[in-house]
Amino acid sequence: MFWDTSDDYKNSKAMRSFLKYSLLIILFTFNVGFLLTASGESSFPTKLNASSETLEKGKFLFLKYCAHCHGNRGGGDGFNAEYIDKDPAELSDPKFLAKRSNEKLFRVISVGGAKVKKSHLMPPFGHTLSEEEIWALVTFIRYLGNDKSSMRVPSDIQSDRPLGPVFTKQDMLSFSKWFDEKGLEKEQTDSGKILVMNKKSCLGCHQLNDEGGRIGPSLNRSSLNYTPEWLYAWISNPQNFRPGTRMPNLGLEPKEARAIASFLVSFQPEEEDEELEAPETWKQYLSSEGDAKRGEKIFHDPEGIANCSKCHLVKGRGGTVGPDLSFAGTSRTRKFLLESILNPSAVITHGYQTVMILTKNRKFITGIKKNEDESGIDIMDKAGKNLHIPREKIKKFKIQKISTMPGNFKDLLEIQDVTDVLAYLESLTLPVFASSEN
After folding, report:
1. pTM (2 decimals)?
2. CA–CA distance, 40 with 47 (Å, rounded to integer)
């Protein structure tokens, strides 16, 4: 029996073409699925031997705590990477992951870079996240690296987050006394400077002069913005005041927290445009006594000129467009509160900067910038509605230097009105806090 070789060749060629295009379709589908998952979709392609629940938890934690430096997909290209001296690790690189065991990844996330002889800019998360959450991060990092190995998570891990120090009123009185006596001594400020600049992860997220990250607020005006007590208590345990904050608990010893607070209170920025002295015209406000009760009425009066509570929340009452002022008297200095009333654009609180976005279809969108990553920009519009603008739809955007808060209250309000509102804001304190002479 003889075969028709020409037909056989044609069929063979057709079969090869079919297999070739089928393979391309499979590869394309897999890659698109992977990219969508890492950037926002909820389904995970089957590869790593781990539950979807663990991967979802790891993804959420990664995007919240890690992506700003390491990138949404672990490529080391997060928006904050350009501001720090050490390039973030490419966590999605299979070669990088092949050299590191799960236990090693768990350890560096837990204790931070400095404890494993890597960059001190990598903060520790062992004082903030539970062991279960850190293992979820390890699992998601393996997923980003297209790892097909089996994840073996220890069975005796802690699921509860660790508790940081909780200060009593006596603790804060003791700190205030110490600060008044020794807080600005050179030994303390020098010690704090070494910790901030060279040993702790502060500059991974915060700016000092032109150095440091842009995740958290700039610390250039710490001496004007924050009270010493607030700095000490906040850096000792941020979650005690704001459980959802992205700032990790660094596990500082009390003497380290005191030294860092001393350095920040004494810090003077190099830039000439950073004005830390109160203008002469402010003296009439700062020297006057205010009536906190009357200031509360002015603040919350919906028919009044100020109507502050339209945008600001105080103990569950008011709007959310502006910063929550529930304990403004504890966290902010008198000078800073006055500046915020008279000249709100001088310093726009981190997380409340206005951004103007021009989309590719030439539409302008303005709102308060809440977050930015590779997937796009999250904003809150003036009605308080949250919007996500995908990166692929953005032509360009610009951070505005003008606050959404009216800047003409010094013309609209009497001096006594301003001092009364100032007195009300200063009364919004946490009972545990005392106040030093600074």
Report:
1. 0.81
2. 18
